[in-house]
């Protein structure tokens, strides 16, 4: 989005894009949804400017003062500005044996779809965050017997900040998904074609074992850069990367999942959200072009699709805030929830209620 928006604003200079994924550019959200249900290829991202090539190489270091990226195949690449947008990668289970599947890249999605196409009839998903829950939904739709296990007491604990746990469990159970929450994985073993996952003393068996325990920002290549990479690249609210010394690294920026942005209360927040990543890119393009961007003034937004429901979240959900249902249409499994009472702090969760959700999140009345 940084490049697309820069071109819209008339920037004619050069962008050098380096990515180690040979399938880039593509959108990840369909990988756990439509792609697994279909037979087609991973589609290229529609928003990517066709005229901009992607150089297939891995960034392995950054000479921060020289704005120079060290790469495995292209040597040193210098520029007037460096934008770090290396995203995040799946966390591997400690001591997880080879063959446990994960889902982050097109290659992962192809491997998972091939395993299902080859006749897998059951899956154990370790982790019930948004990706684990979406996978449970999609694989159940494909006819697999699905079991979900998680240490957390409810699905999507982080996405919902602890709210709507019983509802999200019910969506799973109605689709026939078996769940075990509040359990620890003790071992994962493969014998013949079957996996055995032991959780809190109970042995669960399935054809596939899938780990969906979260993502870690891709900052390993920045270890010697002197950037602050405590949890993602720490940066100012508008994306200027910070040094471990506390200062700002001149000409170095971070956007998307890899960036941890400073909020008004001084804390650093990292989102894993397609929309946030797009907003970061557009806002940086506007900053480069000398405009005051309004992209970053919007409240955080995230969405997930699962069990026949489109779930949308607007704002920071306060874990201790009171959740009030303000709209419901049971025949469509639709509902809208408000959390928080002070007008400026209101956050919203919409379930199959896009019109009501967008009116509410714009501060408009739900009536009319
Ligand atoms: C299966 C799945 C489903 C999702 N569904 C949703 C959804 O429904 N809604 C939603 O809001 N979000 C969703 N997301 C999250 C969303 O896709 C991410 O927030 C978004 O992709 C972040 O974009 P990004 O550009 O910051 O990082 P990425 O998309 O991760 O891109 C980073 C790129 O950097 C490259 N890279 C990493 N390290 C290096 C290196 N050292 N050298 C060179 N290249 C490197 C990677 O190959 C990658 O192409 C989903 C994610 C996944 C995996």
Summed up, what is this model?
This protein has 368 residues and is of the alpha/beta class. The protein has three domains: 126 residues, FAD/NAD(P)-binding domain; 122 residues, FAD/NAD(P)-binding domain; 55 residues, no CATH class. The chain is built from seven helices and 25 strands.
Word description of this protein:
The structure is a single chain. This protein is an alpha/beta fold and 368 residues long. It folds into 3 domains: 1-20 and 57-88 and 216-289, FAD/NAD(P)-binding domain (3-Layer(bba) Sandwich), CATH 3.50.50; 92-213, FAD/NAD(P)-binding domain; 308-362, no CATH class. The chain is 18% helix and 31% strand. It has helices at 2-8, 34-37, 106-117, 130-141, 165-174, 274-288, 354-361, and strands at 17-19, 54-56, 59-63, 68-71, 76-78, 82-84, 88-90, 122-126, 145-150, 178-181, 185-191, 194-199, 202-206, 208-211, 215-217, 233-235, 240-242, 248-254, 259-262, 268-269, 301-306, 309-314, 323-329, 334-339, 347-351. The strands form 8 sheets. It has a 5-stranded antiparallel β-sheet. A 4-stranded parallel β-sheet has the order 10-9-8-14, with helices on one face. The chain is globular and about 55 Å long. Residues 18-21, 24, 28-29, 31-32, 58-59, 85-88, 103-104, 131, 218, 221, 256-258, 272-275, 277, 302-304 line the site of flavin-adenine dinucleotide (FAD). It holds the Pfam family Pyr_redox_2. GO terms for molecular function: oxidoreductase activity, acting on NAD(P)H. Its cofactor is FAD. This is Ferredoxin reductase.
